[in-house]
Amino acid sequence: MTIPGGEIVVLLGPSGSGKTTMMRLINRLIEPTSGKIIVAGRDTLGLNPTELRRHIGYVIQNAGLFPHMTVATNVGLVPQMLKWDRDRIAARVDELLELVDMDPATFRGRYPRELSGGQQQRVGVARALAADPPAMLMDEPFGALDPITREHLQDSLLRLQEELGKTIVFVTHDIDEALKLGDRIAILDEGSRIAQYATPKEILLDPADAYVEQFVSGGQMMRLLQVSRVADVPLQSVPEAAPRDDAADVLARIRAGKTGFGIVLDERRRPVRWIHPEDLDGVTGPIGTRGMATATPIRARSTLQQALERLIQIEHDWVPVVGPRDVYQGTVTLGTLQNALREMKDRGRVRRRGTADA
């Protein structure tokens, strides 16, 4: 089993299937009795276990924060062990708290008992990232949280992954969580056998055996919406403009395009406004602030289901798509989603027909 760098690989299976054992073999909390585990080209058995663990982030279900330490001390623990100086640790703590959407001035001095379950888990993620490890192990980190908090933290993890690109091994027994988070999923059966190791879409469209098929059965098309990313479908190209652009030039671009409207981007290429020809009637010089504010963008790593929900909520049939640092990447429309669903449906029919013929 090979885990590609920069991907989230989910270990999925029932209780007792060996998910946590497999994870603990990676950082040698459990010693392997046979075989090899290679991390960044090196056999882990040839590495000092303590040093190995300091370079692999670890997040568990109940955060595992030290109750007698403040948030700042918990987050800065590994950098302190690595002999970072005090100013560097303090700067890193504040940087990470901001990264997990916790105001440093508000939270750095608090103790775990003063935090909600979701906040504790965010601190646990920040602590795991403190020494900037290339890999992270996450053992059912959201399993004890209420559904709303759990969904928010899943979305936060995907946003962090978009920015940081860590190699993450994530354990869960929840098929929907696995489909949402995983770039690849390893489905383990009760005998700790890997029944299938593939992308979520491949597992849904082409399950390896009856066990996997039973695991993912029911609501296949809706689950395909859950696992397909906006980044995986062709986005609508829309004429682009900047506030300083001349109105006549922008109008010419819109008329030369196929959408009948354009999008205004700020100096960092973040979407700001939609602009239509009627917004430019009689305008000379820069377009400035003309046009109508865009809806909140959807991220490229978002699922097609999230895109569909956003499109249903707004008055337009299109929404801007952004990537890292909120940079504009294109526009998703209802037509985009319809075409993607039609293609997935046809592909599923072809695969099922091929299996039947075999």
From TrEMBL:
<keyword id="KW-0067">ATP-binding</keyword>
<dbReference type="InterPro" id="IPR003593">
    <property type="entry name" value="AAA+_ATPase"/>
</dbReference>
<dbReference type="InterPro" id="IPR003439">
    <property type="entry name" value="ABC_transporter-like_ATP-bd"/>
</dbReference>
<protein>
    <recommendedName>
        <fullName>ABC-type quaternary amine transporter</fullName>
        <ecNumber>7.6.2.9</ecNumber>
    </recommendedName>
</protein>
<keyword id="KW-0547">Nucleotide-binding</keyword>
<dbReference type="InterPro" id="IPR017871">
    <property type="entry name" value="ABC_transporter-like_CS"/>
</dbReference>
<dbReference type="GO" id="GO:0016887">
    <property type="term" value="F:ATP hydrolysis activity"/>
</dbReference>
<dbReference type="InterPro" id="IPR046342">
    <property type="entry name" value="CBS_dom_sf"/>
</dbReference>
<keyword id="KW-0813">Transport</keyword>
<dbReference type="InterPro" id="IPR027417">
    <property type="entry name" value="P-loop_NTPase"/>
</dbReference>
<comment type="similarity">
    <text>Belongs to the ABC transporter superfamily.</text>
</comment>
<dbReference type="GO" id="GO:0015418">
    <property type="term" value="F:ABC-type quaternary ammonium compound transporting activity"/>
</dbReference>
<feature type="domain" description="ABC transporter">
    <location>
        <begin position="1"/>
        <end position="216"/>
    </location>
</feature>
<dbReference type="GO" id="GO:0005524">
    <property type="term" value="F:ATP binding"/>
</dbReference>
<dbReference type="Pfam" id="PF00005">
    <property type="entry name" value="ABC_tran"/>
</dbReference>
